[in-house]
Amino acid sequence: MPRLSIVTLGILVAPWAFAEQPSVEVSRFATMKSQAVSKYALGEFLQKYVGDCGSVPNRECEQRATATRAALTGTKFFVSLDDSGQGLIQARTFDDATRSFVMTLTPFFAASEYAVTQGAPKALDRDGNPLVQLLTLHGTAPDGWSMSTLRRQLDSGGLRLEVVFTPVGLWQLKTKGGKVLRGVKARIDGLAIFVRRSGEEIATWIP
């Protein structure tokens, strides 16, 4: 960042001008969230979008599922994940001086045997789970927190994950045992992590 020369001017500045301004990232996520559809829980959305018609061909069910999927594709959705989102987040680094931290998040939001993912997974790991690319989040912890506090909050369910995403299609992968895994290919528009008790937002990711 270039160095700036400081020039003293005889200008009166109102005290409120020095107040801490809201984070641009926070307001961007809040705006995005307010514009998204939030009437579905994650499991309900997945059932509607995937449209499971069972193993026996059912033309009427498949036509209904296709129509529902077409209506939902391209629409922004908002979901809030409490306990189901905790295992997706890992604390990586923590700066005690600034309380700034780095987390990684696995964008694999599962419910009702299906999952919303960032893009479409192309392969499975050795345990048969779809491989997805991690997202990196940067944030600032509340006063008095340390790495151990952050990890304790993660382990105890003290944090809440909120996600805004846009579905763009379906994906499926077949395991070695022949089982077919299916899910929703999506664009993750943004996500934020909140302290559940206080509601304070401590990290945001927006591409």
Number of discrete helical segments: 5
Characterize the main sheet: 9 strands, mixed
The average pLDDT value, as a whole number, equals 84
Helix content: 10-25%
Radius of gyration: 21 Å
Low-confidence spans: 1-26
State the order of secondary-structure elements, H for helix, E for strand: HHHEHEEEEEHEEE
Instruction: Indicate the overall shape.
Output: globular
Provide a descriptive summary of the structure in words.
The chain is of the alpha+beta class and 207 residues long. The chain has helices at 24-34, 42-50, 59-72, 83-86, 147-156, and strands spanning 77-81, 89-94, 100-105, 108-111, 114-118, 135-140, 159-174, 180-195, 201-205. Residues 1-26 have low confidence and may be disordered.
What features would you highlight for this structure?
5 helices; 9 strands; globular; 23% helix; alpha+beta
Question: Summed up, what is this model?
Answer:
This protein is an alpha+beta fold. The chain has helices spanning 24-34, 42-50, 59-72, 83-86, 147-156, and strands spanning 77-81, 89-94, 100-105, 108-111, 114-118, 135-140, 159-174, 180-195, 201-205.
Describe the secondary-structure layout.
Layout (H helix, E strand, L loop, with lengths): L23 H11 L7 H9 L8 H14 L4 E5 L1 H4 L2 E6 L5 E6 L2 E4 L2 E5 L16 E6 L6 H10 L2 E16 L5 E16 L5 E5 L2
Parallel strand pairs: 5-8
Antiparallel strand pairs: 1-7, 2-3, 3-6, 4-5, 6-9, 7-8, 8-9
